[in-house]
Structure formats: structure tokens, C-alpha cells
Amino acid sequence: MQTQSTATLCDQIVPRGRAWIDGALVVGASLLIALSAQVVVPLPYSPVPVTGQTFAVLLAGALLGSRRGLLAVAAYLAQGAAGLPVFAGGTGGAFHFLGPTGGYLLGFLPAAWLVGRLAEAGWDRRLWSAAAAMAAGNMLILACGAAWLLPFAGADGAVAAGILPFLPGDLLKVALAAALLPTGWKALTAPR
Predict the structure, then answer these.
(1) What are the residues whose beta carbons fall under 8 Å from the beta carbon of 123, sequence distance 6 or more?
(2) Cα(164)–Cα(146) distance, rounded to whole angstroms?
(3) What is the pTM for the complete model shown?
(4) Where are the domains of the chain?
């Protein structure tokens, strides 16, 4: 079992140590990301839609930790690259990594790892630190996505189409996660 200082919320519920449990958690989180990708709000002024993916990616990192969160995102990306309909709007295929959404998809990997690492350091236990962890992961996704959009839209277009439209929804996702994670910890540690 993980020590309290490096344990995630998931570790408190399902202790690590059995490969089949870790595998089931990774696959389950990858399927949660795939389901959240089907919540799509197209933006007329951006080639990238708003989805629930970022919330699920960051939550997977926070709940599973850096290693399993990274593996869950890698499994999700592999499913999509193999052609399974797990990307936004029920699409799949490796060509997604070459188009406008490629940077966001690839940015999911370091973002899940970062949020997982911060959760392992205890950032998911308090409202403000959980919000900071989720915001850091979210900013990493946006930075990767905007950098990828540079050849498609130029610097001004990458910011205007690749970052700004997503900020209101991302703030909502960060607030939701910041509320959920500490609440989960309080529920686990409440006297019974």
C-alpha cells in the first residue's frame, strides 16, 4: 500500500500491488476519457471542439497518479490511433495526430502525468491546491495544442482559436475537479 503522502485518492480505495487491478483501472480510465470525448460542442471559430476529454484526462491523472494516469491516456490514444471511435464525435484514426487536434491529444500525456504527480504530492486534498494542479495540467494541454496550431493558424490564430475559446469551459472543469477531489478525501477520512 502507498504511504499517505504519495497515495492518490484511488490508492486509498483500491490499494496498488496487483497488476490486474492496475490494468483494470488504466483501461477503465481510458474508457472514461473515450466517453467524455463524445460530449462535443463545436466552435464555429476554431478547428478544435470543446469536449469533456480534458476533464477526464486530468481527473484520471489525479485519481490514478502519475504512472497509471499516463498509461490510461496512452491506452486511450492507442485506441484512437488504431481506428476505434474514441476521439471527439466518435471518430478514430492516426490522422488525428496530424491535424489541428494533434497537439491537444499529445498534450494529454504530460498533463495527466503532471496532475498525477501533484496529486501524489498531496495537491488534491485541498480546494486551492487541487485547483492549481488541475489548472497546471490544463495549461499544459492548451500550450501543446496552441503550439501545434502554429503552422495551421499562425501565432495570433493559435491563441485566438486554440486557447481563448476554451478558457471559460476550462475554468468550469478546474472548479468542478477542485471541488470533487477534496470532497472525496473528506468522505474517505470521515469517522464512520
Answers:
(1) 129, 130, 132, 133
(2) 10
(3) 0.90
(4) 9-187
Contact in structure between 127 and 97 (CB atoms under 8 Å): no
Q: Domain 9-187 belongs to what architecture?
A: Orthogonal Bundle (1.10)
R_g (Cα) of the chain, nearest Å: 16
Other CB atoms closer than 10 Å to residue 159's CB: what's the count?
15
- The tens digit of pLDDT for each residue in 84-142 reads 999 988 999 999 999 888 999 999 999 999 999 999 999 999 999 999 999 999 999 99
What gap in Å lies between CA 145 and CA 58, rounded to an integer?
15
**Cell 473528506 appears where?**
186
**Residue given cell 484511488 in the structure block:** 10
DSSP alpha helix (H) spans, the chain: 9-13, 19-36, 53-64, 66-81, 102-120, 127-162, 167-189
155 has pLDDT over 50: yes
| CB count in 10 Å sphere of residue 155 | 10
Give the CA dihedral 60, 80, 106, 161, nearest 10 degrees. Answer: -100
